[in-house]
Amino acid sequence: MPAPRTPAGSARDRILDTAFRLFYAHGPRGVGVDTVIAESGVAKATLYKHFPRKDDLVLAYLDKVDQAWFGALRAAARDAGDQPGDQLVGMFDALAGACRRDGYHGCAFINTAAESPAGGAVHARTVEHKTVVRAWVTELARRAGATDPELLARQLTLLLDGGLAGGVLDGDPVLADAARRSARTLVDAALR
């Protein structure tokens, strides 16, 4: 049987794009390397040349998710205007966009962390992502003049994570709006 036609681009990109699609839909543990090889149309040796271990591929997948999700959060915050308080609320527009996407399966980091043993590189990468996002939100909260920027950041990131999870459970587009309104209440209370 001939190999399936593959999209243009480097073999590494094809592997990573395929892994991104499959891992997000089924979780890294639910997808074998042979499936990634078959669907990306590369030879096994090519996959292992770029990603010697499956964990290397999962880490590259998480890096790609990080770029997309954190990029969306920052863009939504910027689009909300110049005021850090408005940006803290505006970042929730990224949640609305994520939850409305076809094939939405929640937070790739939370999903991957649930599948990964604590102490491993993959689990550590999921924790690192959440820590970096919270640090960014903390800095926005500090610039906005929050009385306790760390607490506000923790509250808002918990609200984001809850919104990401809730989007999977009921798929109701009103959820993101409710999260945004809750964020406004938290931000307003923290800036008094």
UniProtKB/TrEMBL annotation:
Annotated coiled-coil segments of the chain: none
Domain HTH tetR-type: 9-69
Residue ranges: DNA binding: 32-51
InterPro entries: Homeodomain-like_sf, HTH-type_TetR-like_transc_reg, HTH_TetR, Tet_transcr_reg_TetR-rel_C_sf
Keywords in alphabetical order: DNA-binding
Domain of life: Bacteria
Alphabetical list of Pfam families matching this protein: TetR_N (PF00440)
Protein name: TetR/AcrR family transcriptional regulator
Native source species: Micromonospora vulcania
Highest classification ranks of the organism: Bacteria, Bacillati, Actinomycetota, Actinomycetes, Micromonosporales
